[in-house]
């Protein structure tokens, strides 16, 4: 078992079960956000419900953020400053129409100094186009 992964999950108040460690390690090796079906293909012998519950727990605890894309939800690991109260993924989520991958463009962010008598817990900042790899 990966002690570093166990520590990261414990820091997010998430019990590091074997499946959670496997899913976390898999997601950490990915460059793009993945759907449940894509994750399921990697874990061909795992139960779909177990994978879904793992992702939902991760989302609730600030381990992953979900990206809504048409009728599909994709998952990507959060930065360390997300937690169970607030997801701080104020960056652009970009979907490429050619390679069909969704990536986080962390260099394109919303301003964090939005003023007003309110608290924003989540913003969905999404764009579609052609990624730098497919453009060349």
Number of strands: 6
Helical percent range?
Answer: 25-40%
Coarse morphology: globular
Stretches where pLDDT is under 50 for at least 5 consecutive residues are: none
Structural class: alpha+beta
Largest sheet at a glance? 3 strands, antiparallel
Indicate how many domains the architecture comprises: 1
Strand order of the largest sheet: 1-3-2
Percent range for β-strand residues:
15-25%
Which homologous superfamily in CATH is the superfamily?
Answer: Winged helix-like DNA-binding domain superfamily/Winged helix DNA-binding domain
Radius of gyration: 16 Å
How many DSSP helices? 5
What are the SSEs and their pairings?
Elements: H1 3-11, H2 18-28, E1 34-35, H3 36-42, H4 48-60, E2 64-69, E3 72-77, E4 91-96, E5 102-109, E6 126-129, H5 132-135
Parallel strand pairs: 4-6
Antiparallel strand pairs: 1-3, 2-3, 4-5
Question: Can you give a write-up of this model?
Answer:
With 136 residues, the protein is α+β, with helices and mostly antiparallel strands. It has a single domain, classed as Arc Repressor Mutant, subunit A (Orthogonal Bundle). The chain contains five helices and six strands. The strands form two sheets. Strands 1-3-2 form a three-stranded antiparallel β-sheet. Strands 5-4-6 form a three-stranded mixed β-sheet, with no helix packed on it. The protein is globular and about 40 Å long. The mean pLDDT is 87.
């Amino acid at each position: 078992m990966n002690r570093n992964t166990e520590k990261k999950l414990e820091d997010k108040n998430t019990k590091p079960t074997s499946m959670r460690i496997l899913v976390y390690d898999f997601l950490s090796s990915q460059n793009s956000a993945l759907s449940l079906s894509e994750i399921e293909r990697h874990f061909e012998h795992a139960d779909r419900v177990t994978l879904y519950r793992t992702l939902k727990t991760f989302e609730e605890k600030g381990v992953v953020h979900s990206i809504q894309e048409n009728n599909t939800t994709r998952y990507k690991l959060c930065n360390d400053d997300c937690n169970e109260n607030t997801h701080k993924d104020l960056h652009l989520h970009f979907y490429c129409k050619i390679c069909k991958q969704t990536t986080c463009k962390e260099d394109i962010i919303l301003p964090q100094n939005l003023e007003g008598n309110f608290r924003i817990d989540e913003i969905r900042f999404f764009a579609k186009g052609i990624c730098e790899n497919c453009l060349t």
